[in-house]
Specification:
It is built from eleven helices and six strands. With about 230 residues, the chain is α/β, with parallel strands linked by helices. Strands 2-1-3-4-5-6 form a six-stranded mixed sheet. It starts with a helix and ends with a helix.
């Protein structure tokens, strides 16, 4: 803990004064343009990867960057998504997976999670990801599961009413990323598959006659500077 206190002191002494104007504006305004849904993994820091300032990203972090499909009742992920889309009016939503993900490794390698029943229950939201990977002949491949999981969570995301409405109106775009910890690259995944699945799940909500395309359209490999 002492290093955290030292960090706060350094922030107040060195960082805050240089950005006092920014924080003064943020004190009365909150208008992020992007909802970033990433993994809780401490090695994956959205603002660092994208080199964004405070106030630019609305961040939701979950184990395995999982987004449960819409269901009756309330949960923290659904509330965060709804707030970002409906209240803040974000224009882009990123679901970002990453290399060496502990959650995906546990699933791909069949780890015994009996001692962590809450974790095991949460990871059931990746059942479709496992099925995708197996259908592609890549069962047990962690990297393949990471990629398929991003696609599956994009499809889940599109089942949320707030997102479905925004997609229908051409007001938001979905993006799937995979961050490689070892080399710092960010790969943007093609969104054809999740968009098609979302259309099946939500009907016309994912198709729009006008406005921007609801999802990213082509694969691209970028480094962290270009992704920012």
């Amino acid at each position: 803990m002492p290093h955290l206190a030292e960090g706060i002191a350094r922030f107040q002494r060195e960082v805050f004064p240089a950005q006092a104007g920014l924080f003064a504006r943020l004190a009365t305004a909150h208008r992020p343009g992007t909802l970033f849904i990433g993994c809780s993994d401490a090695r994956v820091v959205p603002e660092l990867i994208t080199q964004t300032d405070p106030g630019e990203l609305f961040v939701v972090r979950t184990a395995g960057n999982l987004v449960p499909a819409h269901a009756p009742g309330t949960d923290g992920v659904a509330a965060g998504v709804e707030y970002a889309v409906t209240v803040l009016g974000v224009r882009d939503i990123v679901v970002c997976g990453h290399s060496a993900c502990g959650a995906m490794t546990a699933l791909a390698e069949g780890h015994d999670l009996s001692g962590a029943p809450s974790v095991a229950a949460w990871l059931r939201h990746a059942d479709a990801s496992l099925a995708r990977t197996a259908a592609a002949g890549r069962a047990g491949d962690v990297a393949a599961l990471v990629r398929e999981n991003v696609a599956a969570q994009l499809a889940n995301l599109a089942t949320h009413p707030s997102v479905a409405r925004a997609l229908a109106g051409g007001e938001v775009r979905l993006h799937g990323w995979v961050f490689d910890i070892a080399d710092g690259t960010v790969e943007e995944l093609p969104a054809t598959a999740p968009c098609a699945e979302a259309a099946t799940a939500t009907g016309p909500a994912t198709a729009t006659a006008t406005g921007p395309a609801p999802c990213t359209g082509a694969a691209a490999v970028t480094d962290a500077r270009a992704a920012a």
